Amino acid sequence: MADNGLVAGGRLTDWVSLGVLASFVPRDAVDDAIAAAGRQARRSDGKLPPHVMVYFAMALALFADDDYEEVVVRLTDTLRAWGCWDEAWSVPGSGGITQARQRLGYEPLKELFGEVAAPVAEELTAGAFLGGWRLMAIDGLEWDAPDTGVNAAAFGFAGASGKDRPAFPKVRVVTISECASHAVVDAAIGGVAGKGAGEQSLARKLYKRLEEDWLLIADRNFFNWADWCTAADSGAALLWRVKADLTLPVLELLPDGSYSSVLVNPKIKGKARQALIEAARAGQDLEEDKARYVRVVEYEVPDRDGDGKGEVIALVTTITEMTAAPAGLVAHAYHQRWEHETGNKQLKTYLRGPGKVLRSKSPDMVRQEIYGYLLTHYAISALICQAATEAGIDPDRVKFKRTVRIVRRRAADPAAFPP
Predict the structure, then answer these.
(1) Residues 6 or more apart whose Cβ sits within 8 Å of residue 235
(2) 48: DSSP letter
(3) Distance between CA atoms of 289 and 261, rounded to whole angstroms?
(4) The pTM is what?
(5) What are the start-end ranges of the H helices in 63-117?
(6) What pLDDT does residue 318 have?
(7) Run of H or E residues at 217
(8) How far separated are the first and last CA of the chain, in Å rounded?
(9) In this structure, what DSSP letter does residue 359 have?
(10) How far apart (Å, rounded) are the C-alpha atoms in residues 399 and 5?
(11) For residues 352 and 356, what is the distance between their CA atoms, to the nearest angstrom?
């Protein structure tokens, strides 16, 4: 943004901040999501309408330290200045705002996130691609929710139980994000206790929605035969780390130091397994429910603990042609997975604040609040990526924390962010 004419505080701040949200989460998409979820306003009765409450949920993430009344004043003043506020609508107190949130539910925000959240990096964006594949990563994070009976029942507590249990229920979110921009493009929300609460279970909800031009990078906690097959069947390329005890037979050593190998369904053992490996060595076609060709890249990370032991990293990829992605580039691409950790920090530390608990006291409102965070983070990440690409620099050089401060407090040209 230009530095001329910066004005701190007041309505200009809200203009630019909410304008960023409206630029990347446009009103027509909001209306479509509300309609798809069946949450349209049924009558004009002075209550906060659904589209205002969608932006309110996003504004809660942007102004995480403000109470409901302050956030809604910021929102209504800005919408009024844009000519998007009906004077027949009233601004209720916190109880009325809570009721408006409950009328909206979380489904419109989930629908909206699914509609607008897409990769934003371009061909000229630094660090966005490996060949023709867009670098994407999958990982999980956890949020503390208020300790209410319904939140505890829905999400559970991590670790110990009884009197040693943690202070707050935890919500687990598994996300897929674009490595270059940190923009989250898909997410699954669940608890941390009970059946289906693990990262692998939540990730299974996302694999069928992968895109064919993606290279999905994952840590070793995500690997198993069934999930690998599901993700690969989407058409996306995969680059996953595997655990050290996974058997990876060498079919052919390749000039770049990688080797071709085969993953065998773990249900197949003994002579049947060995027969599949021999068939793979002979280059035969394999039944995909029994075995799949992969390429393996192994390298050692130098000792960091002073005990004289390095760490061996074993990566498997569906990119079996060495010339399409040489081993050195594959290894470098895997380390882009850490960009996902950076994105998680942006969500939990720079937006919500370190160690802070979500506001919402019921599971549906927790989900609504989290989707509000995801949408707001997406809008800011898209803004950063767009600006960095136009400036010819890596998006990592544009500090997220400073951008959030600018978005919250300053405006150079409000007209640049149309409602």
Answers:
(1) 210, 211, 212
(2) P
(3) 16
(4) 0.90
(5) 68-82, 94-104, 107-116
(6) 98
(7) strand 214-218
(8) 18
(9) S
(10) 21
(11) 7
Helices (H) and strands (E) in the chain, counts: 14, 12
Neighbours of 64 (CB within 10 A): 18
From the list 199, 192, 218, the residue with the least C-alpha distance to 318 is 218
Q: Where are the alpha helices (DSSP H) in 180-294?
A: 199-207, 225-233, 270-281
Indicate if the alpha-carbon torsion angle 342, 122, 385, 25 is positive or negative: negative
Cβ partners under 8 Å of residue 81, min gap 6: 11, 15
Q: pLDDT grade, residue 409 (50/70/90)?
A: low
Tell me the one-letter amino acid at 396: D
Q: At residue 229, what is the residue type? A: C
φ, ψ for residue 396 (rounded to 5)? Answer: -60, -25
Q: Is the pLDDT of residue 213 over 90?
A: yes
- According to the model, what pLDDT value does residue 44 have? 56
Q: Which residues of 88-127 are buried (b: 16+ CB within 10 A; e: fewer)?
A: ebebbeeebbbebbeebbbbbbbbbbbebbebbbeeebeb
Tokens for 179, please give them.
């490595």
pLDDT digits (tens, 9 = 90+) for 222-240: 999 999 999 999 999 999 9
Q: Determine how many CB atoms are found less than 10 A away from the CB of residue 37.
A: 18
In this predicted structure, the answer to whether residue 263 has a pLDDT above a threshold of 90 is yes
Who's near 269: CB < 8 A, 6+ residues apart? none
Nearest to 206 by CA among 224, 218, 219, 188: 188
Return the structure tokens found at 66: 């403000």
DSSP state of 415: G
* Paired tokens of 151: 């939140």
Task: Provide the 3-class DSSP secondary structure of residue 46.
Answer: coil
| Residue from 358, 357, 368 nearest 103 by CA | 368
Residues recorded for the chain: 419
Task: Write out pLDDT tens, residues 183-207.
Answer: 999 999 999 998 888 999 999 999 9
Cα 90 vs. chain centroid, distance in angstroms?
35
Q: In the numeric block, which tokens belong to residue 319?
A: 């990119």
**Beta 7-8 vs 410-411: how paired, if at all?**
antiparallel
19 three-class SS: helix
Residues 6+ apart with CB under 8 A from 409: 8, 9, 13
Tokens of 163: 């009197």
Distance separating alpha carbons of residues 186 and 177, to the nearest angstrom? 7
